[in-house]
Amino acid sequence: MLSSVPPSVVNAVLACFPEREIEDVKVLAGRSHVNYAFTFADGGAGVLCREQQNPVPHLDAYFGGESSLRRQLAVLGLLREAGIPVPDVYQGDESAPRPYALLSYLNGVTFAEYMKSRQHHLPDFFNALRNLGHTLSATRSILFDRFGDIQPDGIGNGSTSLAERVAHIFERHWSHARLTTYFTEDEQVELRAWVRASVDGLRHWIAAPHLVVYDQHSRSLLVDPSTGKVSGIFDVEFAQAGPAELEVACASMQLFGLYGRNQFAAARAAFLEGYGAVASGPEGVVLEQCFMLNHFLSATLNLYDGVVDGIRDEWSQAFARAALDVIRGSYDPAVLENLKRAVTGFPSFD
């Protein structure tokens, strides 16, 4: 309903499309942005208005880089040049009280909707992951001279040393005011010692940093409802200049465990068939574990701390346990999806 949309957003859409009449709008609220999906009375292509909720620059939850709408538009431009389906940008205003951008609609359905329509048929799941891997493989040609946050004017918090970049990512966790809420003193010592040893083991790692989209999950990826091929990527606020293992680590947490731990290995193999090889030795394993640990610590301390909504009340505690499981070798690859099943509706086949 238009009454739920700020007048400034409606006026921006009407100014961009003066000859079209708005028929309806759906409001899709996120953590840092609100998406307004407009449809028009003429039945033509709709438009998505992505509005930044917090106009003051803030830090992204996973890597601590400055988060902005401008950063996301820069990443979309890089992906478009690589041939990856992303929305076109009609116009935007970064100086508005709440910066916004008007984007084209993307065809397709979400990954979750696709799998539901396929009655959670595992061969379709593996095929869709293979297609996703193939699409994301194009990002491996978008190279940078250092590891860090992709920003409009270059790489933020950058380092030519992957080990130093990993160490930098973790530093913000050790000084977080809520760390003692979730971890005992002994557990904090254990976490720091594991990270320190892991970083030392990465000192001689040689890899070319490339664009890593990150945080692609079953409700943000758009796919063709007939083929399962990727039809659109638009959620890019955490994009990094990083190694391939970062993208794989994220997919391991967000996608490979959708149907439980027993399907994890086959799901990973399908994705890598399309994405290409990653390091398989001990260093590669440790690197992925580092990124998973960072993800779980970020979720514990930044994303779900204090959230009480009847669904995610204990997610911070669960992610804290998952973080310890990662460094102790007892990590359940389906832990993230097991928490979300009440929301996503994916069945476990374990």
Please sum up the structure shown.
With 350 residues, the chain is of the alpha+beta class.
What do you see in this structure?
This protein is of the alpha+beta class and about 350 residues long. It has helices at about 5-15, 70-80, 110-115, 120-135, 160-175, 180, 185-200, 245-255, 265-275, 280-305, 315-330, 335-345; strands at about 20-30, 35-40, 45-50, 60, 65, 90-95, 100-105, 110, 145-150, 155-160, 210, 220-225, 230, 240. It has two domains: about 1-55 and about 85-105; about 110-345, Aminoglycoside phosphotransferase (APH), C-terminal lobe (Aminoglycoside 3'-phosphotransferase, Chain: A, domain 2). The protein has twelve helices and 14 strands. A hairpin with a 6-residue loop joins strand 6 and strand 7. It is globular, with a radius of gyration of 20 Å.
Helix tally equals 12
- Integer tally of domains: 2
Range of strand content: 15-25%
Helix content: 40-55%
Provide the low-confidence segments as ranges. none
* CATH class designation of the largest domain: Alpha Beta
Q: Find the CATH superfamily of the largest domain.
A: Aminoglycoside phosphotransferase (APH), C-terminal lobe
> On the 0-100 scale, what is the average pLDDT?
93
Strand order of the largest sheet: 1-2-3-7-6
Overall spatial form: globular
Query: Strand count, sense and closure of the main sheet?
Result: 5 strands, antiparallel
How many strands?
14
User: What's the alpha carbon Rg, rounded to whole Å?
Assistant: 20 Å
At CATH's second level, what is the architecture of the largest domain? Alpha-Beta Complex
* Secondary-structure element order, N to C: HEEEEEHEEEHHEEHHHEEEEHHHHH
- From the helix content, strand content and strand pairing, which structural class follows? alpha+beta
